[in-house]
Amino acid sequence: MAYVTAFSFAERFLGFVYRIFLSRRLGAEGLGLYQIALSVLGLFMTAASSGIPITVSRIITKNKAEKDVNDTSAAVTGGILLALAVSVPLTLLTLSKSKILSFLFSDERCLGLLSIMIPGLIFTSVYAVIRGSFWGNTQFLTYSVIEFAEEGVMALAGIILVSTATDTMRGTEFAAYAVLISYIFSFVVSSIVFLVRGGRLKNPKPHLKPLIVSSAPVTFMRTGTSLINTLIAVLLPARLIYYGMGSKAAVSEFGKIFGMAFPLITMPSTLIGSLALVLVPELSSNYYSGKFITLKNNIEKAIKFSVFTASLAVPIFLSLGGEIGTFLYDDSSAGLYVTKAAVTMFPLSVSIITTSMLNSLNREKITLAYYTIGAAGMILCIYFLPKYLGVNALIVGTFINYFISATLNLITLKKVSP
């Protein structure tokens, strides 16, 4: 886990530095536009492939635990076909600039940014499936290096391109091109590694049905997450405008809280995500091998680690949020949002690790249901509370969302692990 965590932290740190650069070059409004377009792209990426990698990984792990010598290349091929079946139509729909997509944006400039990024959807969807094969074969170092390199390519391309921009909108477009370049890079590198290590494309028919059945709940849940992010990007500025805030001010405040403050709040997820990545194959192996005592111990240790990680960060952000915002973004109000949202790290951390655990134990439908309940609470907050709390309604809604899912996940884990 050590090198996975190190690479994940380095990747997150690099992305964070790049986000600081963008915030200073593009300003709150430009960053807000970029974040809105990126949220919609994230929605499409999730719909295309989010549930497939973990399913491919579990098929490989299960085969190993049951000493099944079936070739898993067919599962990878099936996953790629399923990913392309969704990503290609979405790409064509976006490039056609259909009016169907207009409802996703509160600002029409975002559709142009999405059109620049969208070809990367096909490349990154295929890469996601190959990534799942890396997980299943415990090739975590390979995955970590490629992910870090992808972030590095995006940051390097973005800094070079955005630095040449003569105005904010042109700089935002260049940042979108940097996203596309990074996705093409990770696809090319991962494909080469997959083929060099003996990976091949084979008849996927035996694995298509299991892939669809198992990946659908995870895909729905993660698509729901991306849809929520997209809905937030549309609904929150709209509600702020409805209650009297100007359009540019609403986009700017959204950029501050969602593009500046929330990346800081989710920092503990770097360590927790690394733990989940390493733990998922092990929990699956424990479960299918009937090693329930080991399963129980691993679950308890992981939850304690997640809470401990959040405990290290929360006091810092509570006491120094304003100073951090001024230092990083030259914006004290962004730092104030960090302070207000700090305690959200506790339910966020527990929710992330417990959801990954339940998914590895074949409880994808349950986590989907729990996520839906929590997300509904968040949307209600974002719709009704801006009248009283302004943009802070997002902080309250986020806390409620993760608190609900974390609590329900813990109750279910206690029942699942004998």
Question: For the CA atoms, what is the radius of gyration?
Answer: 21 Å
Rough shape? globular
Summing up helix and strand content along with how strands pair, one would put the structural category as mainly alpha
Largest sheet: none
Layout of strands and helices, then pairs:
Layout: H1 2-49, H2 51-65, H3 73-95, H4 109-117, H5 120-136, H6 140-162, H7 168-196, H8 205-242, H9 247-265, H10 269-289, H11 292-329, H12 332-341, H13 345-360, H14 364-384, H15 386-389, H16 393-416
Any overview of this molecule?
By secondary structure, the chain is mainly α. The protein is built from 16 helices and no strands. Helix 1 crosses helix 3 and helix 8 packs parallel to helix 14. The radius of gyration is 21 Å and the shape is globular. The relative contact order is 0.13.
Brief rundown of the structure:
Helices cover 85% and strands 0% of the residues. It has 418 residues and is mainly alpha-helical. α1 crosses α5 and α1 crosses α7.
What key phrases describe this protein's structure?
mainly alpha, 16 helices, 85% helix, single chain, 0% strand, 418 residues
